[in-house]
Amino acid sequence: MTRGVALLARYAEGLFWMARYLERVENMARLVDVTQNFESPGREAEAWYALVRINADEAPFADRGLFGEPEAVKRFYVLDATNPTSITASIEAARTNARTLRPLISTEMWMQMNVFHRDILAISEDELQADRLSRLCRRIKEGVQAHTGITEGTFFRDEGWHFYQLGRLLERADQTTRLLDIKYHQLMPSGIEERRVLELTQWSVVLRACAGYHAFRRVAPAGFAPRDVVRFLIGDPSFPRSVTLCVTELEWHLTQLRRHYGLRGTVGALERVEELRGALTDRAVEQLIAEGLHEFLDRVQRDLIRLGNEIGTAFFRDWRPLATQSQSMGPDMTQSQGAGGRTMRMGDLTLSMPPLEPEP
User: In this structure, are strands 349-352 and 343-346 parallel, antiparallel, or unpaired?
Assistant: First the structure.
């Protein structure tokens, strides 16, 4: 059968960012849930502020006059529609992108997105309290997983599917590195007894936040050490959220776009992926830790940002991450962002956050 009509750039862009936003919704729900369930008595504020650090949101959090109180962090990441990294803002953006994709996505995908969107917008302050928060997070995670399952079973496997997967994998790899970067240094033990306690409790928080606890227990040594968690989350070739597997699958999707659809713009992105894979596999985890795990993870994050920019520059309509404009996000909801998305300084780079598609 001959190849169909070429995919429009705006559709490729919409699929890419819709997937990123939905991945972010699930990831945020996981982070909120494990923080709620495993916060240490007397150190609640420290545990909740770690979410702010993981998402590099210290400045916008402070600009709102907020501090590290648990209730403030919960509202910021669940209900605050003006916070682009919140669950509410992310699902709004995902649905707005999905609306522009009605000619491509299945009816089942669109219907589930609408139901899920309404469910999240109906969240009340009361649901952020105690056990109700865990039930809420479970419902949110199940909503994203329902979307994933429906997409797997109904979405046509053409160019658009590959761009959808590129967005999902980029977001997933980035979130894994951020979680590991922040939590590793918080949880490094100073004594034998402290190490034993942390291995039984706090390291499971990291694994559960990545949905990797049971998978890790299948492959980890009986007396596992922090380096084993690092090795698993960075390099395990079978764990869906490991950075290495995400990069491997990114390479496969880019290769398919080049081979089967003749998209020559993949060359720069494939070169970036090759560099990333080399960085992830060239050195043992013990060497990475000895030389500075934070510095290594920071370089990986920068490379992921560059990879996203390579894809955006090559295939999307007007990729200008440094440009700014005021764009509507929904009723009574605006923010300043670039044509390539919200921007955030990260060293000498600008981090591009997913853009919001205009209303059709």
Answer: antiparallel
Long-range Cβ contacts of 121-130 (<8 Å, 24+ apart): 121/88, 121/91, 121/92, 123/78, 123/79, 123/88, 125/75, 125/79, 128/71, 128/74, 128/75, 128/78, 128/79
Residue type, 288: L
DSSP 55: T
Which tokens is 326 given? 């005021």
H/E element holding 346? strand 343-346
Q: What distances in angstroms separate CA 55 from CA 58, 60, 76, 130, 270, one per listed residue?
A: 8, 11, 12, 23, 27
Residue 68 Cα distances to 43, 44, 49, 340, angstroms: 11, 9, 5, 30
Give strand pairing partners of 327.
Answer: 335
pLDDT single digits (tens) 173-202: 999 998 888 777 666 555 555 555 555 567
168: CB partners within 8 A, 6+ apart: 19, 20, 22, 23
How far is the C-alpha of 148 from the C-alpha of 153, rounded, in Å?
9
In whole angstroms, what separates CA 297 from the centre of its chain?
Answer: 15
Banded model confidence at residue 2, pLDDT cuts 50, 70, 90: very low
Q: How far is the C-alpha of 214 from the C-alpha of 207, rounded, in Å?
A: 8
